[in-house]
Design brief:
217 residues; elongated
Length: 217
């Protein structure tokens, strides 16, 4: 008797399954097609993104290669145009690098006001990579360490001088220069002494700190 009831139960379940399949076959097929289409779309997006990154990289390298050309007005205009194009059309990473290069060119050719404005825009751009955003903030400080508002400069530099920040030694160096500008020689000497002995700081920073300490006696 148990076997008979089991067989009947199995047949009923099979019949219900067939009825459900007939009723919802269209929805099941549509769902399967959506899954396949979604997977294909995701792969396609990745392919398109890779193509965009490759094109942006090639464009950026071409602009960098122009920098090695003889410095003429035509070359400067061409380089600026190339970096502007990358800054407008490339993915975020290359766009930020191109804007940094454009600011450096402005400073190099006498437009320090324009460079400072562009560095400030980058430093406050939440879409930019934090490392590059901090670099823009450091450059903003470096290029007006003698003329900028001391309070604003100190606030930005102290944020960059926090432990773990990639630009910490360079920010500390600028803080020492800012202290000297304001007559805080003892504080500057303390910072420079620590920098000169900091094995994690770049060699150039350590050498400059030691040389400035020697000049300060």
């Amino acid at each position: 008797m148990v076997d008979i009831f089991d067989e009947v139960d199995e047949e009923l379940r099979a019949e219900r399954a067939q009825q459900l399949l007939k009723r919802y076959a269209g929805l099941i097929i549509a769902a399967a097609l959506l899954i396949v289409a979604g997977a294909a779309g995701w792969e396609g997006w990745h392919w398109w993104q890779a193509r965009q990154d490759l094109a942006a990289g090639q464009h950026y390298l071409a602009a960098m290669a122009l920098l090695q050309s003889p410095a003429t007005a035509a070359t400067q205009q061409a380089v600026t145009g190339e970096f502007d194009a990358v800054a407008r059309t490339a993915p975020e990473g290359y766009r930020t690098l191109a804007r940094l290069q454009a600011a450096a060119l402005m400073a190099q050719h006498g437009d320090l006001k324009g460079a400072i404005a562009l560095w400030n825009d980058l430093a406050t751009d939440s879409d930019a990579e934090p490392l590059l955003r901090d670099l823009a903030s450091l450059l903003w400080c470096q290029h007006q360490i003698d003329t900028g508002d001391p309070g604003m400069l100190e606030g930005r530099l102290k944020a960059l001088a926090e432990p773990g920040n990639a630009w910490r030694p360079l920010a500390q160096e600028q803080l020492a220069l800012l202290d000297l500008r304001q007559g805080r020689t003892a504080a500057a000497k303390t910072t420079l002494s620590k920098l000169a002995q900091d094995v994690t700081a770049p060699n150039g920073v350590r050498e400059r700190a030691a040389a400035l300490l020697a000049r300060l006696g």
